[in-house]
Amino acid sequence: MNELEQERQNLLVFIWKKRKIIIIGTFIAFAASIVISLLLTPKFKSTAVVFPAATSTVSFSEQRNAKAAAMDFGEEEQAEQLVQILTSSRIRNRIVQQFDLMEHYGIDKDDPNKQYKLGKAYDDHIQFTRTRYGSIQIDVWDKDAEQAATIANKIVDLIDTVKNEMVRERTIPAFEINKRKKNMLEEEKRNLQAQLDSLSEMGVVPIEGRANLFRAYNEAKNAEDRAYYKERIEINSKFGATYDGLQTQRDERIIKLTKFEDSYEQSESDANTDFNHKFVVEPAVPADKKDKPKRMIIVLLATLGAFVFIVFTLLIIDRIKELRKIA
Question: Does residue 283 lie in a domain region?
Fold first, then answer.
C-alpha cells in the first residue's frame, strides 16, 4: 500500500515539474479541437420507424397462414428479413441513383476506389437497427435536414417495391405453372365431354338409363317400337363401357379442377397483387436541430486525450534518460 502511495506521489510530483509543457500542449489541443469542431459540417438526423407485417399475402385456404392475419405485426423472423432487405443493394442502388449520393457525398466519379468510398459514406449516413420492441428504425444523417427526411421516407416506400419484386421472381413462374396445369385439366375435361356428347348423339345413355331401355323394350306394344329399342340396346351394349369410362374420367377431372381452384387463385393473387409488407409507425420529418457533431464532446475528448498522451510521452522520455544514465 505504501508503494502504491509512493508511486502516486511520484507521478504528481512529475506532473507538477512538467506542468508548463503539459499545460501548453493541452491548451494547444483544446484550441485545435475547438477550431476543428467548428469546421465540421453539421448533420441533421431524420428517423422513420416501421414494423414488418406478419404475412404478405391474401390466403385462400383456411390452413395456410393460420397463425398470421393481414393485420398482425411480424415477429423476430420477419424483422430480420426486413433488415436484410433494407441493407441490400436493391435498395441502396436506387437511393444512390435517385439522390445522386456520389456527388452529394463529394466522391469523384473517376476515383478508382469510388465504390468503396460510396459504400462507406452510405453506411455512415444511413443505418438500420432493430428496436427492442421488434420494429426497425431507419436513421438518416445529412447536411440538409429536408433531404435526410426525404431519403428516410423513400427507403420506407422502397420496402414494398423491392420485396414485391423479389416475391414476383418466384410467384410468377409458380403462377404460370398453375395456369398451364389448369388449362390442361380444362382441355382434358372438354375433350372428354365432347366424346360423351358424340356417344349421346348416337343414343348411348348413362348406366342408370340402360335398365330403362330393356324395360321399354319388353313393354313395347308394336314391332316398330321394339325395333327402335333393340337398336338402342345394341348401341349401348357396344359403346356403354366406353361411355362409362369416359364419364368416370370426366368426373375425375371436374373434382381435380374443383380442388385445384384454391391453389390457382392463390398463385394468381400472389403473382399479380402488390402487397404492403410493413406498418409505418413513424414517418421521418425534417429535424430542426443538428444531431452531430457534438462539439462539446469532441473538445473534451480531444483535450483529455492530449493531456494523457503528453503525460505518457514525458514519462517515457524521462525513463529513457534514466536508463541512459545507468548504462
Answer: no
